[in-house]
Every structure is written in C-alpha cells, then in structure tokens.
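To assess whether the prediction recovers the assembly geometry, we first specified each molecular entity separately, as shown.
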Amino acid sequence: TQLLEQSPQFLSIQEGENLTVYCNSSSVFSSLQWYRQEPGEGPVLLVTVVTGGEVKKLKRLTFQFGDARKDSSLHITAAQPGDTGLYLCAGVYPNTGNQFYFGTGTSLTVIP
Amino acid sequence: DSGVTQTPKHLITATGQRVTLRCSPRSGDLSVYWYQQSLDQGLQFLIQYYNGEERAKGNILERFSAQQFPDLHSELNLSSLELGDSALYFCASSARPITGLSTDTQYFGPGTRLTVL
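The predicted structure of the complete assembly is given in tokenized form:
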C-alpha cells in the first residue's frame, strides 16, 4: 500500500502569517496534485505537478515538487481566513493502474 | 458548483441493508471516479470508469459494486452494510482518464453522507 504522509496534521495560525505544508512518500510519483476541501464539500483541485523540481505559483500559494518526485510542499504567504480548509495531496504512482492515493490531510485554520 | 451531481445528499440506513448512490458527471466528461472518505481512513479511491468500462480499481470491498451507464451517469451499490461503512462517498469526473502524466482536472461532487446504524 502506497502511503502519503502529510504534516502537520493540524495547523492554526493568525491571519497574515506564512505557513508550509508537506507531503511525503517513500515511492516516486508519476504526478502529484494538491486539493483544498471545505466542510461539507468535495475537494477542489489547486495544482498538478509532474516534473521533479517543478515550482508553481497560484496567487499566494507556492507549490514545489521534490527533485526526486517523492515529496512536495505547499507554502502559503500572508494567510487569510478564506484559506481555512483541509489541504490534501494526491499522487499517482507508476504501474498502479492510474489509482489516486490521497494523503492524510492538513487541517488549516486561519484566525482573523 | 463543480457540475458533478450526487444523490442523495444524506442517507441513513441499518446494518445489513443495501443502498445505491448515484452520480451524474459534468457535461462532456467521460470518466467517473468513486471515493470513500472517513475520519480514520481519509480519502480512499474505490473505482474508476471511462465511457462505460472499468479502468482502475482501488480498495473497493467485494460488497460494493459500481457501473457506468450509456448516458454516463454512474451508480455505486453498497450491500450488507456494516457500521464501518459510514462515511462520505464522493464521485468525481474528468474529461479523459487521468494517468500518471496527465494534467487533466478531476471535479468532485458534493458527496453523499452515508450513516449506517
């Protein structure tokens, strides 16, 4: 069973602070996605990364894919209350029949 | 609104019963995915269909089955329900099957919350 571990599991910060969330695996990903899920709703895709070392930016969010394609990070600058939610990484591993494996999730609360 | 619809939104039933969850993908999407989300297991991939055919299978129990119909809607059947089957069940869709190097987007529906008493 492929395992994606995310850290931290819970994070509570003040508005305006910066934060980083990590996603790690012992196996190489073919590709990796980050999602945000709000209570009572389905996950919404934020970004897909495919190339090792790739960095993508989405407004105040910066996503990085590790050089070895086994890990990824999500950095949020100047967090806002609207960033509150569950952040999930999801990876596709080679030779697994296109199964998506989701991480354990990071629950972020941004306090106004 | 992702464009993916799921019914019912809530379902309460008893152990041993059978239920059917329904999903309509976004207009034009041919791939449908089913997921189970519980507090202890997180979000688990169950099964994927593309244009009516099964494309990938995850940790789906033998008591569970799914199909995708010619009009592309999909149903997930859960039988001999147990307390541990209580969870949120999500359907997602994409235009094409998402492979390892694909950057296609998977759109999730709002989910069906199943409670087994």
